[in-house]
Amino acid sequence: MRRRELKALGVDIGTTSVKTAILDTENGIIDSSAVETSDLIKRPQPNFAERDIDEIWKRVVSSVRALEHVRSVEAISVDATSGT
User: Is pTM beyond 0.85 here?
Assistant: First the structure.
């Protein structure tokens, strides 16, 4: 009996960009997209950095919408930046 192919969406919300990819169990990465976010970093004072979460979310949505096969995704994994 053949295993059913599974498609997953990976989302990496990094310091300089949001990267998304669709992967499947047969072929690995089948589509990917990236949207820059480094322009969202604001420095209100020395040694501080802030980013507008609403703007980051808009970039995540934009990156996901650029992918084909999104409607067939059955699993999602999200990774976000640490305190860098």
Answer: no
